[in-house]
Amino acid sequence: MLKIQNLSATVGEGEAAKTIINGLSLEVPAGEVHAIMGPNGAGKSTLSYVLTGRDGYEVTGGAATLDGQDILAMEPEDRAAAGLFLSFQYPVEIPGVPVMTFVRTAMNAQRKARGEAEISAPDYLKKSREVAKMLNLDADMLKRPVNVGFSGGEKKRLEIYQMLMLEPRFMVLDETDSGLDIDALRTVAEGVNALRAPERGMLVITHYQRLLDHIKPDKVHVLAKGRIIKTGGPELALRLEEEGYDGVLAEAV
Amino acid sequence: MSAALKDMIRNPTVAELELVARYAALKADPRRERLFEAFAQTGLPHRRNEEWRWSDFKAAVTGLDVPAAPPAADPLATDGVTTLKFTPQGYTAPATLPPGLRLLAKDEAQAMSGAENAPLGALAAALSGAKNAPATLLAEVTDEAPVRLHMVFSGPGAINAARVVFLLRPGARLEVSESHLGGAAFSTALVEYTLQEGAKLSRVVYQRGGKTEAQAITALIHQDADAETKQTVLAFGAKVARIETRLVHQETGSHATLNAAYLAGDGYHIDFTSHVRHGARACVTRQVTKGAVLDGGRGVFQGKFHVPRNAGQQTDASMQHNALLLEEGAEVFAKPELEILADDVQCAHGNTSGALDQNQLFYLRQRGIPLEKARALLTEAFIAEALEEAGDHQEALRAEAQSWLSEV
User: Fold this and answer.
1) What are the CA-CA distances from residue B386 to residues A102, B77, B320, B382 (Å)?
2) How much is the pLDDT for A180?
């Protein structure tokens, strides 16, 4: 499904350009959930931005495809319409734009790009109510401007709300667990797990094992210095938790 | 034309000579002469006049025979609301007026206070109120039940120079909307509101002119004790457009909200100038101006609060101007000015201009919203605050902004 081959990318321009992703290869088949763990500065967030097409990152080599489609050549909105979703580590505040307006506009823009009919207002509201209930989101929150005045935990839950509404085919979760207490973590994980399906894939970026207790990965990759240095099963995450990155990194070199 | 008339304006342009000729054709009258002299001191204002440095009417008005585009459509027209129409030929009003409103058309010039500070307002006053000329209209509002009124200023014609003078009696309420739709080579409207004790004015202004036209809208507002004005403007500009509000808090407890939003496309110029004098204790002014400008467009904001040493104690005033430069080549000039001589006051001002937030744009695009749509959504949200006090007209103004944004 998602195939990354020998990917290299820099941040910054000209003389200041710095290589952050350095020959990274990774494949997530449909139906699987993979976790990426790694120390600060390993390139985890950069990978999520390069995949989704944020300005300021330049791909200097390699390829990334989603179901064979070269996503690196596409505009960010076209990647989204192709089914790629990023749950942001730091969700952005959009003053003046209510959540409902925002998500419905996004949903219909994606549908339009795919040649599908728009969702009707009643259908949207029905779905929104179901999703909000699952995530314990207050209906009033959805009338407020996107993320404005939301707590860290509310912002993360709103990311998952959007994900459940948009039903993407491939999800990148960038440190979705940060800022969540244990109850919120469980709720968020429940939302994420609801989207696990044979035709979907997921890349879960995290520092800590605890999220992976709730979202069970099929594989765990260790990212360091811009490339995958070790891949294993869920037990690798447990080992990292016990031994820290230093032990695993030393072993890999 | 007599030599004396010709000499009223130094080094007159063709357009200024035409204005002199128009004035000369009206019946002579000492008040009219004083008004025209007030205009002639500066002539068409130009960039060497400090208050007009970014809005050069002398350069923009090349003549009065310049063909103008047809007037813009009117988004504020509402069925059943009393509508006054001001054209270069005069004015029209319905036969029956709502209770609490009295109109008096004048066929001679009426005195104007502070004419020397508002040359284009003085010009409107000097050229209106005569037979076969644009109107000078006096209006008296006496009812505590709100009087609703809509005024349209539009061409076609060479020059549209209307003047309307409102007197709101104690406790009276007026909800007025004004559509300045262009259609003349040069339009200058002078609208005056005097609010007596406890009177309330809601004023909503929509301005849209053509790319070859010059437009000036001058409002003079005087407020007595506990009077209140809420003003909202949405402007799209013209070749050059100036929307000026000069407000005086004359007695204690007077309150003013002056909000405005502007959207300037390629070839359009919008100037918001305001002057608020806190001439009495414990008066309040809230001012929010928001704008967005494209490549080739120009926005100007000049806001001034004047708080005199003794009279202005306990003033509470805030001024905010925020502009979005949507493209390279967009221009915004801003000059917020607080002249505070009193020591027991709360005055704040903020002024920013910059591009759309890249983090916000990326967030919207990551959710699948195309770049153009994302820009439009963020820009609309950005200016929305300035339209929040427009009452029943808020939706219509937002729809106009949306429609403009969906086309750029």
Assistant:
1) 21, 21, 10, 9
2) 87
Phi-psi group of B162: left, alpha or beta (phi > 0 → left; psi -120 to 50 → alpha; rest → beta): beta
Are B307 and B278 a contacting pair, CB within 8 Å? yes
Asked whether the beta carbons of A47 and A223 are under 8 A apart, the reply is: yes
Give the integer Cα–Cα distance in Å for A117 and A111. 6
Report domain extents, chain B: 3-356
Interface of B with A in 147-206 (CB under 8 A): none
- Secondary structure of chain B: what % helix, strand, coil (to 5)? 20, 40, 35
How far is Cα A61 from Cα A46, in angstroms, rounded to an integer?
15
The letter for the amino acid at B155 is G
Nearest 5°: the CA angle A110, A116, A119 is 75
Which residues of chain B lie closer than 8 angstroms to A75, CB-CB? 365, 370-371
Q: Where are the alpha helices (DSSP H) in A114-206?
A: 121-134, 152-166, 182-194
Q: Do A97 and B381 touch (CB under 8 A)?
A: yes
Q: Is A13 helix (H, G, I), strand (E, B) or coil?
A: coil
B213 near B68, Cβ under 8 Å?
A: yes
Residue A153 · residue A179 · CB < 8 Å: yes
Instruction: Choose among A50, A58, A76: nearest CA to A19.
Output: A58
Question: What secondary structure does DSSP assign to B25-83, as a single string?
Answer: HSPP-HHHHHHHHHHHTTSS--TTSGGGTT--HHHH---TT---PPPPP-TT--TTSEE
**A59 beta partners:** A9
User: How far is A227 from A6, CA to CA, in rounded Å?
Assistant: 9
Local structure of residue B238 (DSSP, 8 states): B
d(CA B151, CA B134): 14
Q: Are B88 and B155 a contacting pair, CB within 8 Å?
A: yes
Distance CA B404, CA A41 (A): 44
Q: What pLDDT digit, counting tens, does each position of B201-211 carry?
A: 999 999 999 99
Min Cα distance A138 → chain B (Å) is: 22
Task: Work out the pLDDT band at A251, boundaries 50, 70, 90.
Answer: confident
The CATH number that applies at residue A42 is 3.40.50.300
Angle among Cα A119, A123, A127 to the nearest 5 degrees reads 110
Nearest chain B residue to A114 by CA distance is B368
Give the whole-angstrom CA distance, residue B231 versus residue A75. 42
Relative to beta strand B346-354, strand B298-307 is unpaired
User: Rounded distance, CA A31 to CA B205, Å?
Assistant: 58
| Structural domains in chain A (count) | 1
Question: Which segments of chain B have a pLDDT < 70?
Answer: 1-3, 5-6
In chain A, residues with a C-beta closer than 8 Å to the C-beta of B360 are 92-94
Distance between CA atoms of residues B277 and B350, nearest Å: 19
**Average of per-residue pLDDT values in chain A:** 93
Residues 6+ apart with CB under 8 A from A103: A128, A161, A162, A165, A166, B367
Of the candidates B156, B155, B174, the residue with the CA atom closest to the CA atom of residue B103: B174
Residues of B with CB below 8 A from A162's CB? 367
Domain that includes residue A244, residue range: 2-252
Which tens digits make up the pLDDT trace of B15-52?
999 999 999 999 989 999 999 999 999 999 999 999 99
